Amino acid sequence: MYHYLYNVDSPDDLKKLKECELQDYCNELRQFILEESSRNPGHLGSSLGVVELTVALHYVFDTPNDKLIWDVGHQAYAHKIITGRRDRFSQNRKLGGLSGFPKPSESPYDTFSAGHASNSISAALGISTAAKLKGEKRQVVAVIGDGSMTGGLAFEGLNNAGILNTDLLVILNDNNMSIDNGVGALNRYLLKITTSERYNRLKSHIWDAMSSMPELRRMMQNVTNTTKQGLLRQSNLFESLNFRYFGPIDGHDVVHLSKVLADLKSIRGPKLLHVLTTKGKGYAPAENDPSTWHAPGKFDLATGERVKSATKQPPKFQDVFGETLLELARKNSLIVGITPAMPSGSSLSIMMEQLPERCFDVGIAEGHAVTFSAGLAREGMMPFCAIYSSFMQRAYDNVIHDAALQNLDIVFCLDRAGLVGEDGATHHGAYDVAYLRCVPNMTIAAPMNEVELRNIMYTVQSGGYGPVVIRYPRGNGVMLDWKRDFETVEIGKSRTLRDGRELAVLSLGETGNWVSKAIDRIQSESPEISVTHVDLRFAKPLDTKMLHRVAAQHTHVITVENGVRDGGVGSAVTEFFNDNNYNVRVCRLGIPDEFVEQGTPDELKHLCGFDEESVYLKIKELYNAKVNV
Question: Cα–Cα distance between 134 and 375 in angstroms, integer?
Fold first, then answer.
């Protein structure tokens, strides 16, 4: 079936192909990605869209001496396959296998880690500047998607690169998408460039006519730069930042791409090549529905039908959030929804379809999303700002200075809190409790199930609580009958699910579900081990009345959380007991002080020691230690 694919194990092998063979190789590479991704799910659409661009880059540049930085890294599947990882690609995103993103410790071809957006230009500028200072000759290329270009860090990098004037090539991969459709003024600007027929026709004629005279063609490039301003009736954004702008060109013409890249190698200073691609290129279902096929899960390659569970599953936590928010917004006209380029990923799209005038996709700009929400809150609106937990890290300053310091009523809905599974270390929502509980005026809630999520959202939507964080995990919940009448929740009030004598387990969020199962197992096997189980509900404020009662009745306490142990809610409980001079032994279960790699959520929870089996064993261990004292 494959004539070229298995002959290419490195960029050096790729360079042995003739130009006329490149497109056939691209077709085989795309087919291989489709076959593997249908069985082993991953980020499909983005990688399909850059197959030709990836092949052209490795065909022209001397990697790994020349450096490629991918932004975001989920478009790097073809890159991984070309650079010697084809035979291991079936283990992509699996425990002990390949990371789903570029990872320098995995391969010398992976220059920089890029699990989040907008860092490529800054990193590439640093690498290029280091080469200049060390006297090293190398090309440095940042490949950034148009969605990633909306992030503020990308513009900080462009601004600095234009002044430093180092040899740097930025490739703008423009497919009018991030995960969802592109938004904002930059998106409209790029669209205006790509759809100016007069400019593109003139540019194409000049470029083709001068193909045999490269020096003259470079001189004419300066002429067309001036022409662009007239035909587009505005200055070129990138050239105003001292970047030489080239394009737009077809990102699926691998031969033409290779020739343009070869020409750009000899042009000094900062350059930007605008490349037009189609997300999901070469597979009709992915081209027709690029948002769904960004990461579609398993699917039938022949029919395009996505594989679904044979049994009815509880809804995803994100969908419960989305449907509940729409339900509340219909009753409360002050509610607005904000997300940084994740309407479908966070399920804000549910409200966006029904009440579009009250929903705002601000692009990949988490800091702006927080401060924009603060501005809305300052004028009396009730913002629900939906951000992935790991993405919230980039808005920390905004949370402190713009939300908490002013004690504004904003609800931060942190999806993907805790271990997220196959996306690995860059995406685990491990740190939010630890970095937010030290911020004054902040409330941190973690619902155990869908009903609790709905009730907490209902409670805080009335305002008066200051900034509130609601954290919930990736994936399906635990209840089929979750849509019940709303009930008000007392802020900072825990729930005692079971009273016992021997020791107490304090769980936060969804961990309470498998803690309950572990205790049920203990009680059925060893009735003498009587365990108290408390669903904390809130990491801040803690339920101090409950903690006083637990400390008075128990000498051994286990805390369980899907977040970092150090600085998390277990640390908060330990601090409380210490500050109040209680002699309580606390065993904290959670994510250890290390970066956790990819794997299924169940595998990773077991690896970190806070799954059902780990809780069961820890209860027995502490009980035995207690009775043997």
Answer: 46
Does residue 575 carry a pLDDT above 80?
Answer: yes
Question: Helix axis angle, 612-627 relative to 601-608, nearest 10°?
Answer: 20
Q: What are phi and psi of 497, to 5 degrees?
A: -85, -25
Nearest 5°: phi and psi at 485?
-65, 145
199-206 contact pairs (CB < 8 A, 24+) = 199/227, 199/228, 199/231, 199/232, 200/248, 202/227, 202/231
Measured CA to CA, the distance from residue 280 to residue 286 in angstroms comes to 5
**Residues with Cβ < 8 Å from 220, sequence gap 6 or more?**
206, 210
Q: Is the pTM of this model over 0.85?
A: yes
495-498 and 531-535 strand pairing: antiparallel
Residue 114 has a pLDDT of: 78
For residue 16, is pLDDT > 90?
A: yes
Of 27, 92, 26, whose CA–CA distance to 55 is shortest? Answer: 26
218 CB burial (10 A radius; 0-12, 13-18, 19+): middle
Q: Which strands, in side-by-side order, build the sheet including 556-564?
A: 495-498, 531-535, 503-507, 556-564, 585-591
Listed in sequence order, the residues at least 6 apart from 351 whose beta carbon sits closer than 8 Å to its beta carbon are: 322, 325, 326, 329, 337, 358, 359
Give the residue from 421, 507, 454 showing the smallest Cα distance to 315.
454
Rounded Cα distance between 594 and 598, Å, is 13
Residue 200's pLDDT is what? 47
- Residues 305-340: tens digit of each pLDDT: 988 877 889 999 999 999 999 999 999 999 999 999
CA atoms within 13 A on the CB side of 362: 20
pLDDT bracket for residue 460 (50, 70, 90): very high
CA pair distance 377, 409, nearest whole angstrom? 6
| Alpha-carbon distance values, 309 to 43, 295, 353, 419 (Å) | 20, 17, 26, 22
Give the separation between CA 536 and CA 508, rounded to whole angstroms: 5
Residue-wise pLDDT tens digits, 36-69: 999 998 889 999 999 999 999 999 999 999 999 9
What is the rounded CA–CA span in Å between residue 470 and residue 406? Answer: 19
What is the pLDDT at residue 218?
A: 53
CA 104, CA 477: separation in Å to the nearest integer?
35
Residues designated catalytic: 279, 366, 394
The pLDDT value given to residue 208: 57
pLDDT for 97 equals 94
Encoded tokens for 404: 């908490």
Asked whether 573 and 546 are in contact (CB, 8 A), the reply is no
DSSP 258-287: HHHHHHHTT--SEEEEEEE--TTTT-HHHH
DSSP label at residue 82? I
Distance CA 229, CA 376 (A): 37
